[in-house]
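User: Okay, second chain of the day. Same drill as before: sequence in, structure tokens out.
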Amino acid sequence: MLALSAREEKDPKTLGELFYLCCDEIEDICFAEAILLIMELLASTLSKEFLLFEEQVQQFLDTFFKQLPAFLKSSLHKRIVA
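Assistant: Same drill. Structure tokens below.
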């Protein structure tokens, strides 16, 4: 009981609704947006670390995109077009 009481007094997660309100403020990104961010980071890294030309990086990303499952392609295509 004492450990529970100490935790409730010191742990910010136990400040009731305040913790959850802070978490609600953080915007969730959808899976497709996360994949696009990762692909942009990959393209940037390929061009910087491996000294690839932009055309080479785009060719790599196009090949990668073609090999994705159909449900991911359609989801990503909607994000790219929008």
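The chain has five helices and no strands.

User: Thanks, on to the next one.
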